[in-house]
């Protein structure tokens, strides 16, 4: 195990199994040392530029590294039994969309087919009203008809609706999980997870087997949903909904943000207030409502000085420009994918 290459999945897993080394530190060590034995033999000064004195000392303990290597191998063995791929950020098939993130996960667990670059995130409240249910199906149908894969989080509510709509309309969908891939959460979506895999989709997580979907991990998961995607579609949410974490990551990652505008009685619903804030308020007012601070507030004020943070979808006429924006953002990668299939007028209808 000492001779293991640090940039492999085995190498990264070994490093993160050591006390005091997190994902980011493991990646920095892998960038500086080609082999694990290079770390063991490194002078203290070279290690101190990456890790603390205590961690540097533990890296020179052969037993600790051997134990960490054995733990990493157990993870790899379980992944093989479960049909899960374990990707290192240094692997060529690691998703390019995630590779560009400053807080990218150095290890990714993938079951199924890797997500295509033509992916968009579709998210929203766990308690959608009639409006959320209708727009989730219709927007996903339009996106699938234009050959976009749907990324969501397998949670109840809009996530489930988006995955189901993608499958119903003959498309691919990817579920980004907040816990390990050994346990589907929530359990009621276990059948849906199987259907996603059967239809060339994927289940993805940065969490090892046995890790539960804690609140912190749920928030961390949100950055991967937007990170894998060209754009995020927020179908319905209130001001304080968990979807606002994905909105923040979407904006910080400079992805496109879209939201259907509720009208009539739907505009008065509590679960629509976040959508109204994104599509109608100025960036300054939105920042106040979202309690944006630091870099997030700065980005909002600089990037959206005169308009809302989300592209509003208020009628069927907005879908043509929506698809054009997606293709333009995808840029040169678009030519490498299948051609866009135009949507029919009936698919473009809204409330």
From TrEMBL:
Source organism (scientific name): Mesorhizobium neociceri
Any single biological process term in GO: DNA-mediated transformation
Name this polypeptide is given: DNA-processing protein DprA
Signal peptide: none
Top-level taxonomy: Bacteria, Pseudomonadati, Pseudomonadota, Alphaproteobacteria, Hyphomicrobiales
Pfam families recorded: DNA_processg_A (PF02481)
Top-level taxon in the UniProt lineage: Bacteria
Family stated for the protein in its record: Belongs to the DprA/Smf family.
InterPro entries: DprA, DrpA_SLOG, RuvA_2-like
Smf/DprA SLOG domain span: 86-288
